[in-house]
């Protein structure tokens, strides 16, 4: 297991969560959103659970944040990004299956 100790920024894109150590421009860890199994918060902690396909292997990342409001906001923000990604994935697979099933039936 990799131990990320210190102060990190979490940078969220539409497909990844990047852990960037303070005073660095390079991400120490880049997690694909599709590898995030779940996320949540408890008091002033926020966590992300990833599966086997993650670059780190399966496990959890627990982050201490300023307070429970920050933890809840991070949880909700990541959930929204995960939902948007799964909807995009569902739309894409639906349009692909429609495209293949509508082949000319002459």
User: In CATH's first tier, which class applies?
Assistant: Mainly Beta
Mean pLDDT rating: 89
- Measured distance between first and last alpha carbons: 58 Å
What is the structural class? alpha+beta
Helix content: 25-40%
CATH architecture: Roll
Helix tally equals 1
What's the helix-strand series? EEEEEEH
Radius of gyration: 17 Å
Low-confidence segments, given as residue ranges, are: 99-106
Task: Find the CATH superfamily.
Answer: Pleckstrin-homology domain (PH domain)/Phosphotyrosine-binding domain (PTB)
Q: Strand fraction band?
A: 25-35%
Main pleated-sheet profile: 3 strands, antiparallel
Quaternary = single chain
What general form does the structure show? globular
Spatial order of the strands forming the largest sheet: 1-2-3
What count of structural domains? 1
Number of strands: 6
CATH topology: PH-domain like
Characterization of this structure:
By secondary structure, the protein is of the alpha+beta class. The protein has one domain (8-97): PH-domain like, CATH 2.30.29.30. Helices cover 32% and strands 34% of the residues. It has one helix and six strands. The strands form two sheets. The chain has a three-stranded antiparallel β-sheet with strand order 1-2-3, with no helix packed on it. The protein has a three-stranded antiparallel β-sheet with strand order 4-5-6, covered by helices on one side. Strand 1 and strand 2 form a beta hairpin. The longest helix is centred in the C-terminal third of the chain and has 34 residues, at 68-101. It is globular. Keywords: Phosphoprotein, Transducer. Residues 1-89 form the IRS-type PTB domain. GO terms for molecular function: insulin receptor binding; phosphatidylinositol 3-kinase binding. Pfam families: IRS.
């Amino acid at each position: 297991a990799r131990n990320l100790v210190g102060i990190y920024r979490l940078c969220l894109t539409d497909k990844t969560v990047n852990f960037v150590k303070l005073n660095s421009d390079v991400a120490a860890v880049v997690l694909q959103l599709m590898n995030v199994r779940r996320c949540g918060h408890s008091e002033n902690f926020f966590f992300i659970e990833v599966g086997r396909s993650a670059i780190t292997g399966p496990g959890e990342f627990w982050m201490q944040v300023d307070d429970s409001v920050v933890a809840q906001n991070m949880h909700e923000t990541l959930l929204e990004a995960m939902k948007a990604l799964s909807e995009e994935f569902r739309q894409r697979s639906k349009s692909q299956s429609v495209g293949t099933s509508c082949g000319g039936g002459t």
